[in-house]
Amino acid sequence: MLDVIIIGGGPAGLSAAISARQRGMNAVVISNDGAGSGLFRAQEIGNYPGFPRISGPELLRRLTEHASDMGASLITGRVNTVLPAAGVFNVGYGTEILASKCLILATGVVHTSQFPGEEELLGKGVSYCATCDGMLFRGKRVCVVHLIPEAEDEADYLDSIGCEVVSLKTQNIRINGEKKVTSITADGEEILCDGVFILRRTVAPHLLLTGLDTENGHIRAGASADTSIPGVFAAGDCAGKPYQIAKAVGQGQIAALSASEYILGRVP
Question: How high is the pLDDT of residue 111?
Answer without folding.
Answer: 66
